[in-house]
Structures are given as structure tokens and as C-alpha cells.
Amino acid sequence: MANTTEPAAVKVHTPDLVEMWRSTSEWLSVHYVQIAIAIGAGILIYLALTALRQFGKRWRGDFGDPLGYTNVLGRAVARTTHFFMLMVAAKLVAGYADPPAALFKTIAFLFTIAAVLQGAIWAREIILGLIERKTLAEDGQGETLANAMGLIRVLVTFALFAIATIVVLDNLGVNVTGLVAGLGIGGIAIGLAAQGIFSDMFAALSIIFDKPFRRGETITYDTTTATVEKIGLKSTRMRAITGEKKVMSNANLLQKEITSYFTLDHRRIKFAIGVIYQTPPQLAAQIPDILKEIIEAHGGNFVRSGFVNFGASSLDFEVEFDVYLPDWDSIYQVRHKVGLAILQRFNDAGLEFAYPTQTTFTAAPDGQMIMPYAEVQPVRGV
């Protein structure tokens, strides 16, 4: 004969309303003076908490103002509920007026619910306030934060109120072990089903708080250079310098090596210049000074210039200079003007640019070398 074990039923003890009413009536008739004093004290406590709540509304500041720790605390205090203030007053009064046991237990139970829920509200406001403070302090306009604040608020609210619900049920005597296990299994199932979506969402949060780049920055990844137009919860939208619109998931973008040009206060430009081997050494020695003069005349910061290599068809020189301008279009114009100025100056100085050339020497049947160019005939006198 198989033994069957029935699951134990959860028993929640509810107060006997008739007994509580009888004991409360007797308590009111006997301790009416203490009750009156206690009610007056309770009203004063409630008014004090209400005044504190009004101060919190003043401390939180206006929308869009810079957030300080006082503002964050003010936001939390301003969200104090009337139910919590009423139960705090009732709890303090019950400790003084010595009510019946049933009424005291009821007040204690309601106070536990109010305290747990109020604690969740305060924690949510403080966490969200600190997140906004950190983000707005580094990004004054908070544009990227607005894209994710809704998701952050939902996640924080769900987590805190789930914990508050479990605490309340535990105080009711309910076995919450199964509930916690069920929530954990459900969370794992949802996470596996929406792994790609959650990966991109958390990557968006990483971009917002870690700030590898911001909206409006020009970045380079792989072989693409583009300007960030929008950072969304799922993807980042960019405009390539060639005009195309690029859309990439946040998780994939963070896996790449990203070069940002936002914090650069200058750009370094390098030119490689080759002159022909027939250039006289005295003239070649003047090339670095010529390049320095040209660069400084066009607002560049000269870094270095000099001979670097004997090339296959040229004497190779190199010049480097910095341009302190905010945008790439202005830097591009400086590079353009410097390049044309070098061309003009070299042409005036008689410096010839080298290009790949090859000279072929052949021999006549008698073994004499045939020159690749016509021999210069001497001029005979008339």
C-alpha cells in the first residue's frame, strides 16, 4: 500500500473581528483620556511628517536642474505616502495608549506593510536619483539617459517591489521558498528566450554609463568612420562620412575596437615627399626649412621634417604638423592649402617631385653603349 503525503496547507491567522470589537469598546470606555492624548500626539506626528514631506518637495528642485545629494534625498522624502505617515502615527500612539492585543497586532501588521512598501519607494527614488545625478553630471543635456531611463525605472521598480512583496508574505507566515524558486526559474527562462534583446539593452546601459562615445561624436570602427546620431536601447544609428546610414546592434558595436575623435584637441597631419636624385645637396638641405615656413604660414604647428630614405626613384622626405581646429572640415581645408603651397614653393625653388622611372641601357653590335637620350653636339663656330 503506497503512502501518500498531502502538502501542508498554509494557515494565515485572521483576527476575530467580534472579539476585537468587544475588547476595543472596553478599551475606549476605560482609557478615553489616554486615547485622547494619544490621538492628539498622533495628529502632531502626522503633521510633522507632512511638513517634512513638503520640505522634501522643496529640496528636490525643478526638473532639469543639476542634481546634488540634497536633491536626491528631497525626491525620496517627497514620495512619502500618507498611508505610511498615518501608520507611523498609529504605531507610536499604540505604544503609549496600550490598546487590546488584537488591535495592536492589526496596527503592527499594517505598519509592516506600510514600512516595507515605503522603503521600496524610497530606495527606488534614491537609486534613480543617483543614476540621473551621475549621468547628468557628465552629460549636461542627458539626451542618452532619456533613451534608457524608462527601462531602468521598470527594472528597479520590479526588483524592489518583488522583494517588498516577498517580505510582506513572509510576515504573513506564507512559505515564500517556492515563490522565490519560481521567480528564479521564470527569470532564467525569459532571459534565455530574449537573450539577444537583453544583451543589446544592457549594452545600451553600458554605453550610457561608461560613455565610450556620445551622440554627435565621430568614431571609427573596422574600416568605417561615422558620426553617432542616436543611441537606442537596441541599436546605435550613425551617419558615415560617405553619407550612408549605419545601424548596428549595441552588443556588436561594443565588441569592436572604437576610435573616438571627440576628445582630440588637435589632429596630426603627415606628408611624404619625394624629390629626384638629381637634386643638388645644398637645395635638398633647405627642404625642411621650406616646409616649416609653409606650415607656420597656414596656421599649423610644425613638429618635425627631414630626410627619411633613399627610395627606388626618389630622395624621400617627411613632414609632420598639428592643426588645432575643432572640426574635420576645417582641418581638411588646412591640409589642402598646405599641399598646394608646397607644390607652388617647390616649383619656384626648382625642386622637382620624383615619380617612378626606369632607364634602360643597350649596347651596339660593336659593344659600345647606346645612350637613352640624344648626345649633345658641340656648337661649331661660324
3D architecture notes:
With 382 residues, this protein is of the alpha+beta class. It folds into 3 domains: 17-193, no CATH class; 209-260, SH3 type barrels (Roll); 267-349, Alpha-Beta Plaits. The protein has 12 helices and 10 strands. A 5-stranded antiparallel β-sheet has the order 4-3-2-1-5. A 3-stranded antiparallel β-sheet has the order 6-8-7, with helices on one face. Strands 9-10 form a two-stranded antiparallel ribbon. A hairpin with a 4-residue loop joins strand 7 and strand 8 (315-323). Helix 2 crosses helix 3, helix 2 packs antiparallel against helix 4 (82-97) and helix 5 (101-138) runs antiparallel to helix 6. It starts with 16 loop residues before the first helix and ends in a 12-residue tail after the last strand. Mean pLDDT is 77; it is low at 1-12.
Quick description:
55% of the residues lie in helices and 15% in strands.
N-C termini distance: 144 Å
- Give the class from helix and strand content and strand pairing: alpha+beta
How many β strands by DSSP? Answer: 10
Question: Measured on Cα atoms, how large is the radius of gyration?
Answer: 40 Å
- Give the averaged pLDDT, no decimals: 77
Could you give a short account of the major beta sheet?
A: 5 strands, antiparallel
Shape: elongated
The oligomerization state is single chain
The H/E string reads HHHHHHHHEEEEHEEHHEEHEE
Which percent band covers the strand fraction? 15-25%
Give the strand order of the largest sheet, numbering strands 1, 2, ... along the chain: 4-3-2-1-5
Helix residue percentage: 40-55%
Could you list the spans in which at least 5 consecutive residues all have pLDDT below 50? 1-12
The number of helical runs is 12
Task: Tell me the domain tally.
Answer: 3
